[in-house]
Amino acid sequence: MATPIMAKATAVWLCDNTTMTFKQIADFCGLHELEVQGIADGDVATGVKGFDPIANKQLTQEEITKAEENPLHKLKLLHNPASEGEEKRRGPRYTPLSKRQDRPASIYWLVKFHPELSDGQISKLVGTTKPTIQAIRERTHWNINNLDPIDPVALGLCKQTELDAAVQKANAKKAKDGTVMSDDERRKLVSTEQSLGMEPEPKMPAAMAGLETFSLSDPRGEDEEEEEDTRDVSDADSFFNLPDDDKSED
């Protein structure tokens, strides 16, 4: 059910200006009944100024009168065309202060493992700016030497479904532009279970290229016989051609 804008301030106004039950106000504002009771007792929303739902075109006086006369009546929020799409997030994601220090590591992970993502997509996923992304891409970030790539999903900066949707969109755009995808990029288009079940393709390191037919065998063939050594080695002196001991030196 849609809730009014400034729900808590609207609940404050309804508690102060109507005789509706706490449950009716809670259901309309999307709050808990005990929270509305706390507002009425002055324990909750202290200092919050009431927000008039009638003046702001969220309720009519007739609807409030019906709710006051019948405790089972549920208030109906007026349709405001200007509020359509407000629930959809626009612009960069808001990142809590406790997680902002993890954003460079998540950007590094996205740049390294998903180079097909654009700066705008990364900005929406983790809530950062394009200059920061560009600095990490070009390795000119002030802390680039101390950064370790960490999955933004593991850090809680985005959801896995949002990351998968962004990757699918980026790959679809690349395919539409006619860019050929590599095997690793094609694997990203299938589910994790399917990707893990696929047999890895054997790849030869670049340094080993051209050595597929390398053999340790003698290229002259095995049919050729080595020449036999017919020298008589029974006499060690004759083998080494040692000089006689009785000859005097010149």
Automatic annotation (TrEMBL):
Residues 221-230 have a biased composition (Acidic residues). Residues 74-99, 175-250 are annotated as: Disordered. Pfam families: TrcR (PF06242). InterPro entries: TrcR. It comes from the Bacteria. This is Cytoplasmic protein. It comes from Yoonia sediminilitoris.
